[in-house]
Design a protein that fits this description.
alpha+beta; five-stranded antiparallel β-sheet; 2 helices; about 25% helix; about 25% strand; globular
Length: about 100
């Protein structure tokens, strides 16, 4: 039995900033932003391939670490894992007493 091909969903490029370790997204100007809402969205497989190639070039230039494409829904990360990476920890860590 052959599985049907998964339909293409829009994607963005994400990575970690080499210097700070922050989660970043590649924007339309070729810069990396901490805001997923500013990310360049690839709406076709060809655009996704081009976006990943550009992100990998930034990796090779020591700007970011391990770029990958993630699916987005309405410009926001589609999976729970990526939403957590975008917004930060899901728990509040205790701080020093006030």
């Amino acid at each position: 039995m052959v599985k049907a091909a998964k339909p293409f969903r829009p994607v963005v490029a994400t990575a970690n900033d080499l210097r700070s370790g922050a989660v970043v997204y590649r924007d339309r100007d070729g810069k990396w932003s901490k805001h997923a809402s500013l990310a360049e969205i690839a709406n076709t497989q060809d655009a996704a391939d081009r976006l990943l190639a550009l992100a990998r070039a930034d990796h090779d230039a020591n700007i970011v670490v391990e770029p990958v494409l993630i699916e987005v829904d309405g410009g926001k990360p589609a999976t729970l894992r990526e939403r957590i990476r975008d917004t930060g920890p899901t728990i509040v860590l205790p701080g020093p007493p006030v």
